[in-house]
Structure formats: C-alpha cells, structure tokens
Amino acid sequence: MKLLIVRHGDPDYVNDTLTEAGRREVQALAERMKNVKADKCFVSPLGRARDTAAPCLEKMHMQAEELWWLREFAPVVQRPEKNGVAWDWLPADMAGMPYAYDYERWPEYPPLEAAHVGEEYKKVCDEFGKFIEKLGYRKEGKIFRVLEPNNDTIVLFCHFGLECVLLSYLLDIPAFILWHATIAAPTSITTVTTEERREGIAKFRMQSFGDTSHLYAAGMTPSFSGRFRECFTNEDERLD
Fold first, then answer.
1. Alpha-helical segments (H) within the chain
2. How many domains does the chain have?
3. Closest by alpha carbon to 161, among 178, 173, 149?
4. How many C-beta atoms surround the C-beta of residue 21 within 10 A?
5. Domain assignment of residue 25, yes or no
6. What is the pLDDT of residues 87-116, one digit of tens each?
C-alpha cells in the first residue's frame, strides 16, 4: 500500500483558505496529481486543505471523503516566548526538554501536558490506526500485521503539523522531532509505502518527504510557510 500525504498550498490562515501564491501552487500540484492512479482520497475539513484538494480531484476525476482527524494538529501551548501550537518551539527551548527524542515520553513536559498535547496525539493516532486497519494493516508494537495485503494508493490532503503525527505513528519517530527537524513545504507530497519482507508482517518506509518537484517543473519555488529565516540577519524572512 502506498500513502501520499499532501500538504495544502500557501495558506491564508486568517480566512482559512489559500493565498494567490497558494492557488498558483495548487494548479501546478493538480497537473502532477492528474497522473496519480489513486484508489481513495481523503481530505481535512479545513478550508485550506479542501481548496487544495478540489483542483486536484477535478483533474483526477475523483472525490474525497472528509475526515475530522485530518484537521491541523493545533493544541494551544504556553511557550516561553508566546503561546502557540505545539510544533513551534525555539531550538534552545526544545533542547532543554528531557524526553524530546523519546518516542513514548515526548509529551511528558509540563507545558505540553497542560495543553493536553499527548491526549490529542493519542486521539489522532487511534483514529489513524483504525483507518490503516480498515485498509488492511494493523499496528502491533512497532510492526504492522498484514490483514489484507494490497497495492492501493491512498491520498491524504492535510497539514504539516498533522502530517508529522501520521509519520510518527507509521515510522515510530517522536512527532516532536519531526515537527522541529523537518519541513514539508506547501503543496509538497510525502510518499510512504509498506514493505512486506516476511509474509504477514509489514513496515512502513518513507520513499520521499516533502517533494515539491512539480513547483520547480512549473518554474516556481516553494513558498516560505512553515519555515523560519535561514540566517538571523535575513530580515526579509520570517523570524517568529
């Protein structure tokens, strides 16, 4: 089975839609997605994800089912510099967290506990686990039991923070590390597939992360949403 996790285009967060740049990105994405032979598509209920999916689905001649748990992962956390999402800590603050790199214990940090981040993470993972099991694979510890092997292609239109939660569940990597050590640019595509090297036992492997080749093919570069300035003196890039 193959999962394609697609981040929405450059967002207009205030109006929960896309910027003009985001709409241009999505047109390039749709040209790529029209060649994807998908079996099923699913989409976040948030506007920016639905506005990304719509042109793609039109080109693919498909429809998508809306899943509530594909919405952005957004518990509000009291962080040292300002309140915000769980996946936006400054490096120095993140480095001081005792379990940041521990797959089982990373939510055990007072501000994260106060914001119920671990509970929300578990809720999403439980739903995703049931979803994956319906597709033929049940997680048992750190492997997946193959219930119904298949070569289906499943497309998920969602958000970067949520994408990291899904990858955390599939790859057994702390979501906290994925949030802070990676960035999937707007309209990027992450591809994860099952590997069954012994009958009945599967493991998910990430073939590509945050692929934006469709933007470069269209003469565009990825927008900056989700990133921060490369050098502190780059005043034209995002600081916080």
1. 20-33, 47-60, 91-95, 110-114, 117-134, 160-171, 175-181, 213-217
2. 1
3. 178
4. 17
5. yes
6. 888 888 888 889 999 999 999 999 999 999
Whole-angstrom distance, CA of residue 57 vs CA of residue 43: 11
Question: In this model, does residue 230 exceed pLDDT 80?
Answer: yes
Condensed to tens digits (0 to 9), the pLDDT of residues 9-22 reads 999 999 999 999 99
Structural domain includes residue 200: yes
CB atoms near residue 233 (< 10 Å) = 7
The backbone torsions φ and ψ at residue 160, rounded to the nearest 5 degrees and listed phi first, read -60, -50
Q: Is 218 left (phi over 0), alpha (psi -120 to 50) or beta?
A: alpha
DSSP 100: T
Pull the structure tokens for residue 176.
């906290």
**Residue 231 falls within a domain, yes or no?**
no
Judge whether 90 lies within some domain: no
- CA-CA-CA-CA dihedral for 120, 123, 124, 128, to nearest 10: 170
Which domain covers residue 198, as residue numbers? 2-75+102-217
pLDDT tens figures, 119-173: 999 999 999 999 999 999 999 999 999 999 999 999 999 999 999 999 999 999 9
- 182: domain CATH number is 3.40.50.1240
